[in-house]
Amino acid sequence: MGCIALGAMFSLAVFQVAMAADTHWSRAGIDFSMTINFIVMAFGSFAWGAASDRWGARVTTLCGAVLLGIALTLASRANTLLEFQLTYGILVGVAASAFFAPLVATVTGWFETRRNLAVSLVSAGMGMAPLTITPLAGWLITQHGWRAAMFDIGVLAWALLIPAALLVRRPPDVGTAGQAAAQPPSDKNRPDKSEIGRALTSKQFLVLGFTFMFCCAAHAGPIFHVVGYAQYCGLSLMTATTVYSVEGAAGLGGRLLVGLLADRYGAKRVLFVTLIVQALAIAAYLKVNELHEFYALAVIFGVAYGGGMPLYASIARDYFGQNIMGTVFGAATMLSSLGMALGPVAGGWLFDTYHNYAWLYIGSAAVALGAVLIATMFPKPRLALTT
């Protein structure tokens, strides 16, 4: 489900060339829809996460599935750039945010052992999007044009996500393992506002949320601009694109590897290591020029940022328990999405200003180091916050 939902959103990168040629809209204007996506996803993640605590992830993902299909089919019929930005940017952002936080929060409730691996597997599904939905979108555009392709992906979202959403089950309440609690919890188990307020203002959440935010702000720019940077260093467009693909594949494998390591050595300890490796890898991009150097660094960087991402959910579960997991992780995801929104825009501005990518990687490495420093302040779990 995550693969289809996030893949549909991120496939805009494939559509932009055909859209610009057909409509004469500026590429910057089309790309701005993606910035809107991230901002809307930030607040949508918090809202959908809180809704999943109350009604369960089945309800939120079903709503997201219906809305995603509507958004894509309407966007495929947009006649003006503003109409497309509002439809794709807002509606797709709202729909896509209905999946990540609720699904990850649900999975953390189903597994007490091997929880890090379970969350990593779900995250790996989402990481499959660039290897599945993106090539499909490219083929559809080639065969039928961008409007038909976007419409078809919207219909595909309905056909696959709506039935899948009906299979999502609420995890059992604490102490009732083995019961598939498909119904919403009783009123006595619902989190109250004071409980949520204490959690979101606690040191545990603030350290978790801002580490997540700085981590995403650090790697967003290098991820989005790696193709441009590789071309700047003299690689052809097609060759530069393979560097991006290697990063994505390494991130996919890193999720599984790091998930296994986190189950063995602890999520906080392993996350701290991935943050250090991420900071060093970003800084090392300043020294690469050759294709083999790009490939080697893409593997290291992909494993570091991809492997670390699922661990935030596991740490949140350890701190706050399952009862308010959707709300807490949704709020953390909101901060991470705001961080992601900064990276591409800042990277583009720095390149336009200085005509090179050096300051992008210097700035991103500094932000990555900030994430490491914040992570040193992680306190010990205090599950009493939710009692």
- Counting DSSP E segments of at least 2 residues, the number of strands comes to 0
Helicity, in percent? Answer: over 70%
CATH class of the largest domain: Mainly Alpha
Structural class, from helix and strand content?
mainly alpha
The rough form would be described as: globular
Write a concise keyword list for the protein shown above:
17 helices, disordered C terminus, Growth Hormone, Chain: A, globular, 2 domains
Give your account of this protein's structure.
With 387 residues, the protein is an all-alpha fold. It has two domains: 1-171, Up-down Bundle (Growth Hormone, Chain: A); 192-379, MFS general substrate transporter like domains (Growth Hormone, Chain: A), CATH 1.20.1250. 79% of the residues lie in helices and 0% in strands. The two termini are 33 Å apart. The relative contact order is 0.15.
Task: Give a topology summary.
Elements lengths: L1 H9 L1 H12 L3 H29 L1 H19 L5 H16 L3 H11 L4 H13 L1 H16 L1 H20 L27 H8 L2 H30 L4 H29 L1 H18 L6 H18 L2 H10 L4 H30 L3 H18 L12
Compose a concise summary of this entry.
By secondary structure, this protein is an all-alpha fold. Helix content is 79%, strand content 0%.
